[in-house]
Amino acid sequence: xxIYDVMRTTFAARSYTDDPLPDDVLERILDNARxxxxxxxxxGAHVIVIREHATRQRLAELSMTxxxxxxxxxxxxxxxxxxxxxxxxxxxQIAATDVPAQxxxxxLEAAVVLAVCVNLxxxxxxxxxxxxxxxxxxxxxxxxxxxxxxxxxxxxxGGTISTMPVAEEPRVRELLxxxxxxxxxxxxxxxxxxxxxxxxxxxxxxxxxxxxRFDGEPFEA
Length: 221
Known about the structure:
- This protein is α+β, with helices and mostly antiparallel strands.
- It has helices at about 5-10, 25-35, 55-75, 90-95, 105-110, 140-155, 170-175, 205-210, and strands at about 45-50, 110-120, 160, 180-190.
- Strands 1-2-4-3 form a four-stranded antiparallel beta sheet.
- Helix 2 packs across helix 6 (about 140-155).
- The longest helix is centred in the N-terminal third of the chain and has 23 residues, at about 55-75.
- The radius of gyration is 18 Å and the shape is globular.
C-alpha cells in the first residue's frame, strides 16, 4: 500500500474476525516496526507477545479499574483520566459503574495482544522536574507502537492502543514478569478487523497547526 493510504486508513480497530495472525506475519510487522526512532537510538522498548487466553482474560479483568473511572467521567461530561482535574464522580460512584464490553473485548477477541514496555534507565525524560505530568519519555516508545499499527494495516490487519490496564500496573507487572526498571506504555490487540474504515474524521491542518505561536494564525499553504 502507498504510505499515505496506510496513514489515512489506520484506525482504532476494536472488533475482529476469527482469522488468525500467524507468527510469521507478526514477525514481519515487528521487523519493520522496529525501525522507529528512539532517543539516542537507545531502543529501550520491549514487546511481550501474548496469546494465552488465561493471561488475556486476566488483563481484561485488570483493565476494569481504569475503564470504570473512564466510563464514569464520560457519563459526567468530563474528559476522562485527564491529569489536571480530579474526577467529579465519587470513588463509590466509580466503583459502581458498569464497564461497556468495548473496553475488555479486544483483549479476548484479538488474534494476539502485545504489551509494549519501555526501559526507564535509557529514556531521556527532560520534563521529569516540571510541575506537570511527564510525557517526554513517550517519544522513545510510542513511535514503535504506531509503527506496529501502520505495519499491521499494511498486512491487512488492525488493532488499537489500550492503556486501561496501566491503572493496575503493579499487578500487570507481576502477571507478565516485567522488571521494575520498565514501565508499561501500551497494550496493542491485533487481529483482522470486522470492518475496514476508509474515511476517518480528523481536524483539518488549519485547526491542527498555527504559525509561529500557539495563538498564531492557522497554518495554511
